[in-house]
Amino acid sequence: MINAGRIHSLNQLEYQSGSVVYWMSRDQRVRDNWALLYAQNQALKYRVPLKVVFCRAPKFLGARKQQYAFMMEGLRQVSQDLNLLHIPFHWLKGDPEKEVPEFLNRTRAGLLVTDFDPLKIKKRWKEKVCMNVSIPVADVDTHNIIPCRIASDKQEYAAYTLRPKIHRKLYEFLEPFPELKPHPFSIQTGSADQTGEKIGTDDLKIKETGDRTQFFQSGEKHAFSVLERFIREKLDHYSRDRNDPAKDGISGLSPYLHFGQISAQKIAIEVMETDVNEVSKESFLEELIVRRELSDNYCYYNNNYDSFEGFPQWARKTLSAHRRDPRENIYQWEQFENAETHDPLWNAAQMEMVKKGKMHGYIRMYWAKKILEWTSSVEAAVETAIALNDKYELDGRDPNGYTGIAWAIGGVHDRAWFERPVFGKVRYMSERGCRSKFDVDQYIQQIERL
Ligand code: FAD
Ligand code: FO1
User: Fold this and answer.
1) CA 97 to centroid of ligand 2, rounded, Å
2) N vs C: which end of the chain shows fewer Cβ within 10 Å?
C-alpha cells in the first residue's frame, strides 16, 4: 500500500469515469515510482486503462541539447518498459499548460496523477492544468523519502533543524517498493488516443557526436550499474574522499537522481543493507537524504530560492553593507563561461563542468563563491552562477542547484563567519584553503587532460 502522506490532492473533484493518466515529469522511471504505483492502483480500483504522458517543453530553464539528449534517451527506455506492461506512453510536445489539458480532455481521462516538484515553473504548470480540466488531480512525492510537505511544514533554518524531523519519520517512509503489474485494462483499439504521436529526438537535431556527453550513459538500467559500482568500489571510503576533487570518490548519481531515473529511496535501502563502515554510510546518507531533502524544503517554502531576496536576513544585511567594497577582479559572462579568469583552479572547475557536464561537489562551493567575489553585485553573482549551472550541469535546473548557490553566495543553511570585504560575514573560501584540503595541481592537470 502507498503511504497516504505521499499523495496530495490539487483539487477537490471526485472521480466519475475514464482512464487514469500519470503525467510523468520529475521522476522519469518505471521502477520504484510511487506516482506510477498510485496511478496503477487507482486504475485497478476503477477497472480502467492506465496511460503515462510526458510533455516535452521547449527550452526548459535554459537546458541545452546535451541535457535533452540525456533525458530523451532515458524516456525512450521508459516507454519501452511501460509497453511491456501494456501501459501506453504518450509523447506530447510544447507548453504543458496547454498540451496536457488538451490530451486529458480529448481522451476523456477521469483522473490525473503527477509527481511532486518544488520548482516555481512546475507549480505554475499544475495550476494552469487544474484550471483547464474538470477531473481530480493529485501529485505524489516520489522524489523524497519523507514527502517534502510531511518532513516539515515550513522553511527550515539549516540541516540541523531538519535532520531530527527526517530521522523521526524515516522508518515510516523507508518502505520497500511493490512491483508494478502488467495492466489488465487496455484501451479499445482505434480509440481517440491510439495515435500517441511518437516524438523521437529528430526534431531536436541531436548530432550523435558533440550533442551527447560521453561521460554519462542515460537510463534506469545504467543508473543501477552506477549505484552498484559506487557501493562496490567507493562507498567504503566516501567520508574520506568525498571532498577531494582530485579523487573519484563520489557516486556520480546526481544526473540520474535529477532526471528521476533512479529513486533516492531505493539507493538508501541498498546502501543501508551493505556492511560498509558506518561512518561512510552515514556520511553518504546525510547528503542523499538530509541535504537533498533540505533543498526541496528551501525551494518549496521560499519562492525567492533563485534570488538575493531569498537569503536570510543576516546575510542580506551583511552583503548589503559591503556592496561598495572594491572588487579586485570583475569578469564578464564570456570570461566566466570560457574559463578565462586569473585563477587556474576556478578555470579548471568551470572546464570540468563544460567538458564533463558535472563539476565535483566540493569545488562547486569554491566556484560559486568566487563568482560573488568577481562580479559587480550580489544579484549579478546569483544570476551568473545560476545561468552557468543550469546551462552546463547535467544535474542542473534542480532544487539542489538553486539551494547550493544560495548556500555559497547567500549563507542559506549556513551561519555567519568573521567579516571580510565583499562577503561580509558569509563564509569565504580561498585557493590556499583548497590547497590545504586536496592536491589542487593534480585536479587542474586531470581537467586539462579531459
Ligand atoms: P554524492 O556526494 O555522491 O551525493 C549523492 C547525492 O546526494 C547527490 O546526487 C545529491 O542528490 C545529494 N547531495 C550531495 N551533496 C548535496 C548537497 N550539497 N546538496 C544537496 N544534495 C546533495 N546538485 C545537483 O543535483 N544539481 C545542481 O545543479 C547542483 N548545483 C550545486 C551548486 C553549488 C554551488 C553547490 C555548492 C552544490 C550544488 N549541488 C547540486 C549539490 C552537490 O554538489 C551535488 O548534488 C553533487 O556534487 C552531485 O554529485 P554526486 O551525486 O556524485 O555526489
Ligand atoms: N520536465 C518536463 O516535464 N518536461 C520537459 O520538457 C523537461 C525538460 C527538462 C530539461 C532539462 C532538465 O534538467 C529537466 C527537464 N525537465 C522537464 C524537468 C525535470 O525532470 C525536473 O522535474 C526538474 O528539472 C527538477 O525538479
Assistant:
1) 14
2) N
Q: Which atom of ligand 1 is nearest to the CA of 295?
A: 20
Is residue 25 lining ligand 2, measured as CB closer than 6 Å? yes
Residue 184's Cβ-count burial label (10 Å; 0-12, 13-18, 19+) is exposed
- Judged by phi (left if over 0) then psi (alpha if -120 to 50, else beta), residue 190 lies in left
The pLDDT tens digits of the residues spanning 72-129 come to 999 999 999 999 999 999 999 999 999 999 999 999 999 999 999 999 999 999 999 9
State how beta strands 20-23 and 50-56 pair: parallel
Query: Ligand 1: which atom is nearest the Cα of residue 389?
Result: 28
Q: Is the CB of 290 under 6 A from ligand 1?
A: no
pTM of the model: 0.97
CATH class of the domain whose range is 1-185+202-302: alpha beta
Cβ atoms 260, 143 nearer than 8 A: yes
Question: Which one-letter amino acid corresponds to residue 284?
Answer: F
Nearest to 398 by CA among 3, 31, 71: 71
Classify domain 308-448 at the CATH superfamily level.
DNA Cyclobutane Dipyrimidine Photolyase, subunit A, domain 3 (1.10.579.10)
Alpha-carbon gap, residue 223 to 234, rounded angstroms: 16
The type of residue at 71 is M
Q: Measured from the CB, is residue 395 less than 6 Å from ligand 1? A: yes
Domain map of the chain by residue range? 1-185+202-302, 308-448
pLDDT (tens digit per residue) in 332-371: 999 999 999 999 999 999 999 999 999 999 999 999 999 9
Asked if 96 and 129 count as a contact pair (C-beta separation under 8 A), the reply is yes
* Residue range 139-166, pLDDT digits in tens: 999 999 999 999 999 999 999 999 999 9
